[in-house]
Amino acid sequence: MFLAGESAGATITSAGEPIRACITRDRVGLTAHALLLPSAPFRCETDQRTLGPGSYWLRSAPLRRSGAVNVRSASLWQGTVTLYAVYADGVILRQSVDQQGASRRMQLGAMVEVALPHRPAPLVRLLWHVDGAANLRGILRDVELTTVDESRQANLVLGGLYAAFAGLCMALLCYNFALWVALRHRFQLAYCAMVLSLLAYAISSSGYLSWMYPDIANNDRIRCNYLSLGIATVSAFAFARAFFEERVFAGWMGRSVRIVSAITVLASLAFFLFAPWNVWFFDRLYSVAFVAQMAMVLPLLWRAWALRSNYLWVFTLAWAVPIIMATVRVVSAFGLIGWNFWLDNSTIVSMTVEALLSSVAIAYRMRLLSNERDEAREREIAARLLADTDPLTGLLNRRAFLHHAIGREGEQILMIADLDHFKQVNETIGHDGGDEVLRVFARTLCQSVPAEALVARMGGEEFAVVTAAETAFDPENILASLRAERMPFDVTITASIGVCIGALEREQDWKALYGCADRALFEAKSAGRDRARVRLLSHHHPVQAPTLAALRQ
Prior knowledge:
Elements: E1 17-18, E2 21-25, H1 32-35, E3 54-60, E4 69-74, E5 81-87, E6 92-97, H2 99-104, E7 106-107, E8 111-116, E9 123-133, E10 144-146, H3 148-183, H4 186-205, H5 208-212, H6 218-243, H7 252-274, H8 279-306, H9 312-333, H10 341-344, H11 346-388, H12 398-405, E11 408-419, H13 422-448, E12 454-459, E13 462-468, H14 475-484, E14 495-504, H15 507-526, E15 532-536, E16 543-544, H16 548-551
Parallel strand pairs: 14-15
Antiparallel strand pairs: 1-10, 2-3, 3-9, 4-8, 4-10, 5-6, 5-9, 7-8, 11-13, 11-14, 12-13, 15-16
Helix pairs in contact: 3-4, 3-11, 4-6, 4-11, 6-7, 7-8, 8-9, 9-11, 13-14
């Protein structure tokens, strides 16, 4: 989130001998020979931007440099630049560099390099004619003389820097896109768009775009520079919008961010499409859009603080350096402070810091989302358990029992148990005592049936058990355990059990099997209670409980 410049970051360290140039505005009749005279009217301006756009002549201080040298200067928005190299023997070499020529001479760091041949006489003066300078950041800036080895060394250092940044962008892009495919959080996709735009910005602003397309006009490369950075900043706001809780961007804040983002997109597109017609105007429009973006940062952070956002501290930590540098660059773009080496090199450094810390912020956000998901899942499970469980006994309720029972394959045993004379129990020891009796019976039932059996309270004092027919199971064990169980107030509790064996694959099977078990239960109560009766769906006569093992066969 910082302003694009005409040059990209210049160099990490000075590649060679810095050259200071004095300047004069071009006028009709001025020639190179006349301007090389000591009496030529040049001004050594500390800030070239005060002179405005136009065509200019620039002259270096006296030099004394032997051998082959390269003249490097920062890439700026300008037309043709003509370089005059003056040697001690009076020879003047002339080289003109147009927009395509600037791209073909581009070095990493967006430095245009003109090679001067080795001559017997030393180089004593340089003179430039700059045609059509926009003078947005200067007319001729960061001029230096380098040897071939110094130039190569500068490219190696910057190549390592840009390659590291590109590798970081690719790693973050692949990682976050993979996370988005798996998790579908919007902030991950916005972050991918931001990283991809920054990668495009690094390619254009570093000058590597000119290496990829040597015939591209240098001003067109600069237009790509503005567009990619504009998209990156809009993506950054989209990331912030998706990263924070929805309440932070509710109301006027969300509307303001959308308006500012739209202005930035329009300003970036306008510069990209129409800058050649009036580059100064569209550069200022672009700068105003960035001012609007910077103006949104403090209200956004304040609102996140006021609403106690969980993500404020990680977002502030990640974006502090880029935001500060963006603000400084906006101030510099309006000429309020000078343009210097460290400011020009803030691009890669600040965004590298941001990318790394944003990864920490995303990891923190994912951790909180994971916690929220786990809590939601626990609440869902708890709610489902409450919906499926009888609150008094903790057993399955009728609805959950039928859901799990119907559809079981193979022969099944359905047992219905009913407490004998339970109404009298409630009248004797009260409903609280009766509830405790139900809980004790439920516990006894669970302890007496196979572990894989389904056990449910069907309602009132009626309970049901379903288990596979081949399971070792005898209802007499349940009756014996119940007789041995100590009940509240030492009341005596017995139960009657009806058992039926049959299929349970469909709802019709359940109705038939339940009716069969219910008839067996009625027979047990009619026979004196405290006993079990067994039926088969194909049998019309009761079968004694001890023959249950034989019925499985």
